[in-house]
Amino acid sequence: MxxxxxxxxADGVADIRLDRPDKMNALDHAMFDALIEAADxxxxxxxxxxxxxxxxxxxxxxxxxFASFQAMQAGGDAAxxxxxxxxxGIANRPQYAAWCWRELPVPVIxxxxxxxxxxxxxxxxxxxxxxxxxxARLSVMEIKWGLVPDVAGTQLLRHLCRDDVVRDLTYTGRVxxxxxxxxxxxxxxxxxxxxxxALAAAREIAAKNPDAxxxxxxxxxxxxxxPPAEGLLLESVEQQAILGSxxxxxxxxxxxxxxxxxxxxxxxx
Length: 269
Known about the structure:
By secondary structure, the protein is α/β, with parallel strands linked by helices.
């Protein structure tokens, strides 16, 4: 992981940086593995309450490193021979490099600058929030290579944008700026310094009741896949588990006393 991604943890926030600037953080097999390892590290590190995902150098991620994959394909790489194999739960390895951020129990904020193309954009879509510079360039670029977005993009896009917008971006592969992406729903908001803004937002989230934040992420994830009746029951179950807990009582006390809260970690969820 160290030759592709750098991770530091401070004040409850995991700072995850794609670190292949000479290739604009392009995705090869090592990068896919590193993304998954980084998500595992965040999941397994006690005290992490939010995460920020960003890219070093000129771009967040330029997408697939085709030279690397063509070489692997020519050598008969098994990972490319059958993408239908579910190697990581419901996903294959490239899909899980994006989906793992959705499955993390803590919120993930992605900071976008330069370009986020193809698989790079799809990795960003796995995050809870995306902050981008106004001049960032984003594209569902797979159609340029005669392909479909297959790094979990079809499943992540459909919950962010109108159906016709998703089809437009997928069928044409056109490049949109950070400003247009914000209007379309791909980006949460535009920031002059998205990484600094993402870290600030992550620190703000990390200061909230971690039981409630994690439960909220579970509920919001479930809302995209379960029928309303099941979702309403799940909402009640989660709330019942939080009400009267030590962290919930501390949230009330800190709010009433106008002081910073002192929350305990919630391992295992």
